Amino acid sequence: MTYVLKRVGALAVVLLVSSFIVFAGMYLAPGSPEQFLVQGRTVSPEVLASIRVQYGLDDPFLLRYWNWLVGVVQGDFGRSLVTQQDVAALVGSRIPTTFWLVAYSAILIVVLGIGLGVLAATRTGVFEKVVVLGSNLGFAVPSFFAALILMSVFGSGLGWFPVSGAGDGFADRIWHLTLPAVALSFPAIAVVARITRTAVREEQGSEHVEMATARGVPGRLVLWRHTIRNSMLPVTTAVGTNIAGLLAAAFVIEYAFTLDGIGSLLVGSVQRKDFAVVQAIALIMVLAFGLINLIVDLLYAVIDPRVRLSKGAQAR
Fold first, then answer.
1. Are 102 and 181 in contact, with CB atoms under 8 Å apart?
2. Which residues have a Cβ under 8 Å from the Cβ of 85 and sit 6 or more positions away?
3. Contact (CB, 8 A) for 88 and 80
4. CB within 8 A of 275, min separation 6: which ones?
5. Residue 193: how many CB atoms within 10 A of its CB?
6. 315 Cβ contact partners less than 8 Å away, ≥ 6 residues apart
7. What parts of the sequence cross the membrane (predicted)?
8. In the chain, domain spans
9. Model confidence pLDDT, tens digit, residues 13-56
């Protein structure tokens, strides 16, 4: 429990520091909210002053940050400068699409990446060469190019999957998001498969695996209990890093497949200098990164309790 509380506390500190950087970064960027609102028109100083008063732009920076942070804690991210909508409602309506896309991609990474890596490590011959070749291809093909190929072949060509929209309902959403999820996860699957294959191969030659085999332990038990489990630490790191990276790469796929996720909303908000929306999405992405890293740390302790014990010893 102490280990979990320490990790949660570290996440809270990261979020606090990140929120300050996000808030400060937007106001250090070229342009200002009042310049955007007047759209280049010539207005009187009185109008500009009233805009600054309305949005609290004349307050000291730290006071503006504090007021914004208090609002964020209460779920109030302000209002969009473009649409005047509540930012929390605007972003909240886009989160489900991105969540489904990232979750679908994460499942593909775990199942295909780890599965293919384990099979490639335990089976030599043609299958291993195909996995290695596929992983090399995954390293070389960017997600956006993979999206174009998938849309051309399986969407426009064969007509098996739709190439736009997120769908309604569970089955329809899965059908619509299959091509985007495959395109988004393809490079990560290649990385995880390669790392899994290497980790399992190294573990197969370890002393405790050889001892278990020499004692007559059944091969399947040696594989699952001694080889695969003990090789999961580097694999877990690779999986966690690549799943976290999906959040940053999702906006490219959302743009290609015209999905109404937070990635496409972020791109449009940056172009229109919609500060409140950009700040909210940036903070949500930092929170998601932090939660994924927290889950990875907790999985370390589950896979190998020595990780937790060693960190506890260092703390003492």
1. no
2. 79
3. no
4. 26, 27, 33, 81
5. 28
6. 6
7. 7-29, 99-119, 131-154, 174-193, 233-257, 277-303
8. 2-92, 95-260
9. 888 888 888 777 766 665 555 566 665 566 566 666 666 666 66
Which of the four pLDDT bands, split at 50, 70 and 90, describes residue 96? confident
What pTM, to 2 d.p., does this model score? 0.75
- DSSP result, 37-93: HHTT----HHHHHHHHHHTTTTS-HHHHHHHHHHHHHTT---B-TTT--BHHHHHHT
Which pair of tokens denotes residue 118?
A: 């384990």
Q: Which residues pair with 86 in a beta bridge?
A: 79
Amino acid at 86: D
CA distance readout (Å), 302 to 232, 237, 306, 309? 11, 14, 9, 11
> What tokens were used for 56?
């609290």
Query: Which residues make Cβ contacts (< 8 Å) with residue 97, sequence separation at least 6?
Result: 166, 254, 259, 260, 261, 262
Question: What count of residues does the chain have?
Answer: 316
Tokens of 262: 């937070």
3-state secondary structure of 256: helix
Residue pair 100/303 in contact by the 8 Å Cβ criterion: no
Asked if residues 94 and 262 have their Cβ atoms less than 8 Å apart, the reply is yes
